[in-house]
From TrEMBL:
Residues at the active site: C226 (nucleophile)
Protein name (record): NOL1/NOP2/sun family putative RNA methylase
Superkingdom of the organism of origin: Bacteria
Example GO molecular function: RNA methyltransferase activity
Signal sequence, renumbered to the chain: none
Pfam families: Methyltr_RsmB-F, Methyltr_RsmF_N, Methyltranf_PUA, RsmF_methylt_CI
Binding site for S-adenosyl-L-methionine: C104, A105, A106, P107, G108, G109, K110, E128, D173
Domain SAM-dependent MTase RsmB/NOP-type residue range list: 8-296
Record's keyword annotation contains Secreted: no
């Protein structure tokens, strides 16, 4: 039984009325609903999960639980995500070719959904200010096989000057008081207070003030939280409308179990009924708030003076030499490549022996802390080329012939970092799969031993 603060109960008794508030408190002590999304970017393969209980209004999403060691997860065919948390990306209206920013991106649930909607066309910038959380973000983006993402680990004040009025869509899943996650994370209750809500509200305004600078006139801002608090939900949307002249768009969500925003909890703007509220008692998922806003076509923000810092020890990326191209081709020529990588010889760059196909060319003096730009093809070593783990996950989007499929027993050994014996005529670098789901590169020696190239940081 959750020990909810008295002031929390008093607040929602007043806002919802005693009967509806009691429904909320009861639901917060029930089991959470689990769900997952199936990756439509990957080559069509059969997966073992039950697909008979779809999440309403979300494509390729189903109720059920997945495990982190299953081939479906490791190969990037499924992503475990709270069902209510799927809606902010779903209502974004992102289409292939858009320039999209996920501003508070870790661990990557919404980022992977946005990338799937882009279908590897356009640009997806995924930023996470926490260095620790950005590691998980990168891993999840790589696993999903997205090839058009720039991953940054930056403060908003340093990101905004690089992308003035640049993006078609910006998603801000803002850090919040986390009321909607109390039953999944009871520790969040310890941080809760009425004063803490106001602290979160100010932090959200600070984040959004920077986000607005990066959104082009007429662009869409998706704002979401995992809290019930009007101070962080309707009142923030009202602030955006008043401060920056945004309009609140309809989301297109029709499921009657999903509640609408409350104008009376903010400034009585009738457009607030276009926002979405998810309550645990509604049976969709955890607590969530989501809104889609549009920036005025005439809106503009003052130009930002760019501040630069000296780079230490970084040298500019260079084009591939003919010899380097030949080393890489000895590996890549054996595989079917997605459209974006077919002309890798012209696009690829190399920096400190790392070869990558960038999704965007940034100003030389942008000085952003970049974790990944596009697709890392691999690394050049002495007279050879070693393909990357990210490339293996990207190649999983297309049917491949040069693949060794492991049994479940050998798959588990491989995940632990062991070498395994295979019966195959293939030699050299090959793709490794289990249940025909590609998840890694390996290298077969003449003795039919499969050398393990699964990244050490991912081994289980």
């Amino acid at each position: 039984m959750l020990k909810l603060p008295t002031s929390f109960k008093d607040k929602y008794n007043k806002l919802l009325g005693t009967e509806k508030a009691q429904d909320l408190f009861k639901a917060m002590n029930e089991d959470s609903k689990k769900a997952f999304r199936v990756n439509s970017l990957k080559a069509e393969q059969e997966i073992s999960y039950n697909l008979t209980q779809p999440v309403p209004d979300i494509s390729n999403a189903y109720y059920g639980e997945v495990a982190g060691e299953d081939p479906e997860w490791v190969s990037g065919y499924v992503y475990s995500q709270d069902p209510a948390a799927m809606f902010p990306a779903a209502i974004s209206g992102v289409k292939p070719g858009d320039k999209v920013l996920d501003l508070c991106a870790a661990p990557g649930g919404k980022t992977t959904a946005l990338g799937e909607q882009l279908k590897n066309e356009g640009l997806l910038v995924a930023n996470e200010i926490s260095a620790t959380r950005s590691k998980a973000l990168r891993e999840n983006i790589e696993r999903w096989g997205i090839s058009n993402t720039l991953i940054t680990n930056e403060s908003l004040e340093r990101l905004a000057p690089v992308f003035p009025e640049f993006f078609d869509v910006i998603l801000v899943d803002a850090p919040c008081s986390g009321e909607g996650m109390f039953r999944k994370n009871p520790d969040a209750i310890d941080y809760w207070s009425l004063n803490y809500l106001l602290t979160c509200q100010q932090r959200q305004k600070d984040i959004l003030a920077e986000a607005v600078k990066m959104l082009m006139p007429g662009g869409r801002l998706v704002y979401s939280t995992c809290t019930f608090s009007p101070e962080e939900d309707e009142q923030i949307v009202s602030w955006l409308v008043g401060q920056y002249h945004f309009s609140i768009l309809k989301t297109g969500i029709k499921d009657e179990r999903i509640s609408l925003g409350h104008p009376e909890w903010a400034d009585d703007n009738p457009e607030l009924v276009n926002t979405l509220r998810f309550w645990p008692q509604d049976g969709i998922g955890e607590g969530q708030f989501a809104a889609v806003l549009q920036k005025s076509n005439t809106a503009s923000v003052p130009k930002i003076k760019k501040k630069h810092r000296k780079k230490k020890g970084n040298r500019a990326a260079t084009c591939l030499s003919q010899n380097e191209q030949e080393l890489i081709a000895k590996v890549l020529d054996h595989y079917s490549l997605p459209v974006g990588l077919i002309d890798w010889r012209k696009k690829a760059l190399v920096r400190k022996d790392h070869v990558f196909v960038p999704v965007i060319s940034l100003p030389v003096r942008s000085d952003l802390h970049i974790l990944n730009n596009g697709v890392e093809l691999g690394i050049l070593k002495k007279k050879r080329f070693e393909p990357s783990h990210q490339l293996a996950e990207v190649l999983g989007q297309i049917k491949q012939e040069r693949v060794v499929d492991l049994s479940i027993e050998d798959y588990r050994k491989y995940l632990h970092g062991e070498t395994v014996k295979v019966k195959s005529k293939l030699r050299g670098f090959i793709l490794v799969s289990c249940q025909r789901l590609i998840f890694s590169f390996g290298k077969v020696a003449n003795n039919e031993v499969l050398k393990n190239f699964y990244p050490k940081g991912l081994r289980k």
